[in-house]
Amino acid sequence: MVGCGGSSGGGSAPRPSDRQALSAYVGRIEPLRHGVNKLLDGADPILGAYREGRLSAPATQLRLRRIEHRFAHYEAGVAAVRPIPPDLMAAQRAYAHTYVLEDAYLRALITAVPGRRWNRLPQVEARQRRVLVAWRDALALEAARVEVPLPDDIQIAGNGEITPSPLGEES
Fold first, then answer.
1. pLDDT tens string 6-47
2. Which residues contact 76 (CB under 8 A, 6 or more apart)?
3. Taking the domains of the chain in order of start, what are their residue ranges?
4. pTM of the prediction?
5. Is 149 helix (H, G, I), strand (E, B) or coil?
6. Using H for helix, E for strand and C for coil, what is the string for 1-40?
């Protein structure tokens, strides 16, 4: 999905500007990535309470709507990240699009709550996972090329639950 980039493989040392560009990119993307992960973790307890009858449909929708509104800010933030190292442009565009997919999923989830019409939810998780893994791999290649260490937790991007499940562990 994402090419290896423009590295000539000629053994020349990475330019300081390449290192700075990647460090700046990671410094901008990481707070957004962490924030959205924490935000989406909040959806599972809401959905669990709804499944167990501790929350009504309107209360569940209200709480999920709050999450979706906050998520939209992260979506815009990821789309606005600059600078993007040239070798990561395609991976970043695809990564930012996963936020568009997730926002659409959250809106569909909110709509599906009253009738529990879970079969109408968009099936985006597998696609998101593929893109996240490709983004993570492209990032790792660029980091190796320019000799910049990445945060350890980037290795788990694309693993685990990506979209909140109304069915809990059963899904």
1. 444 445 677 878 899 999 999 999 999 999 999 999 999 999
2. none
3. 16-155
4. 0.85
5. coil
6. CCCCCCCCCCCCCCCHHHHHHHHHHHHHHHHHHHHHHHHH
